[in-house]
Amino acid sequence: MILKSIRILLLFGITTFQIVAQNANPIAENMFYSVETAIANDQNATQLNIRDQQWFQFPLNIDQLDKLIFLNAMRNHFERWDNALFSLRKLEVLNLKANEFNYIPNEIKELKNLVKLDLAANKIAKISEEIGALQNLQYLYLSGNNLVYLPATIYKCKKLKVLQLDNNQLSDLPSAMSALPSLEILHVGYNQLYELDLQWNSLQKLEELNLEHNRLQEISASIGALKNLKALILNNNNLKELPASFSALGKLELAILSSNELKQLPQTISALKNLRTLILTDNNFSKQEQERIQKALPDCAVYF
Questions:
Q1: CATH assignment, 195-304
Q2: What is the pLDDT of residues 240-295, one digit of tens each?
Q3: Cβ(225)–Cβ(198) under 8 Å?
Q4: What is the DSSP string of the chain?
Q5: Does the fold of domain 195-304 match that of domain 1-192?
Q6: Around Cβ 203, how many Cβ atoms within 10 Å?
Q7: Which of 1.20.1250.20, 3.30.559.10, 3.40.50.1010, 3.80.10.10 is the CATH number of 1-192?
Q8: What pTM does this model have?
Q9: Residue ranges per domain, the chain?
């Protein structure tokens, strides 16, 4: 119950953004709900919502709406990338969540103005290296797919703030991901990661890191360089210890470390002055270590 409640609060900010982003600017611009209506009323339409139509292919004349900035086509049955889609080169928000796509093609490079791309809950197993051409991209949602690897060219997306990769089949992440200077939120939970070859000291803006339900056996000492990290989620891994640098996460407010093999925490954890919630259930802490941790963190709610 504790974990569930905290996770709901943690995800609230992201969920709020996603709901708002489904309607780019409903007051300033008209939202159209069919291609035909948009063409008939305003061929300069900028917003189109064709979600939940149970369609298997895009409307043939969608390329006539070449001024589109916002397109929501989530929860249909699209599995083929229509070339007409890549003629919409002014798109900034493209929501294709919960369709049937199994790859991201080379042609994605044509949509250079994309700020948000949502392809969560598809069947994607391969991403073209041309994803790196999306240099305005800030939000990339790929959760719930069949990914086994991520192209190293992702590092070219220098403006990327949010990257969600949870619920895939990733066993590794490209070390080039360390070169994402704007990244604030990284979710890679529910994958098959045994280790991470990332230079955390390059991700100075990272605030939320979720690595739950993997197979991690250790965490690099460089994690202490994440000076802006506020939430660290590492439950359900195979961690036996944490590096001493864990205590250097001065802005950390939430740490979920349950269901690991931890016997003790670093001796310097009292340095975590902003830590308010620490979940350590289902580990191997002695009664003496539990008392030490609680004494070291008097302002933190600690759960064993």
A1: 3.80.10.10
A2: 999 999 999 999 999 999 999 999 999 999 999 999 999 999 999 999 999 999 99
A3: no
A4: -HHHHHHHHHHHHHHHHHHHHTSS-TTTSPEESSHHHHHHH-TT--EEE-TT---SS--TTGGG-TT-SEEE--SS---S--GGGGG-TT-SEEE--SS---EE-GGGGG-TT-SEEE--SS---EE-GGGGG-TT--EEE--SS--S---GGGGG-TT--EEE--SS--S---GGGGG-TT--EEE--SS--S-----GGG-TT--EEE--SS------GGGGG-TT--EEE--SS--S---GGGGG-TT--EEE--SS------TTGGG-TT--EEE--SS---HHHHHHHHHH-TTSEEE-
A5: yes
A6: 25
A7: 3.80.10.10
A8: 0.92
A9: 1-192, 195-304
Q: Beta strand pairing status for 47-49 and 126-127? A: unpaired
